[in-house]
Amino acid sequence: MDTAKNNPIEDELNAIRVKLYEQTKDMTTPEQTAFFHKMAQDGLARHGIKAKYADPVSARR
Fold this sequence. Notes:
By secondary structure, the protein is mostly helical. Helix content is 64%, strand content 0%.
């Protein structure tokens, strides 16, 4: 029995993945990073979550 053929959750996740690919396929890596960073910030703000961000330079030490 293959449940993956009729899995609406997996279908929705695949649709989201394809949509994100289409939105970002022509972006440079820095543009993609900014895109996903903004998306994350918007989601956090929408849910009233405050986040602390690590300093990537000091984190490597």
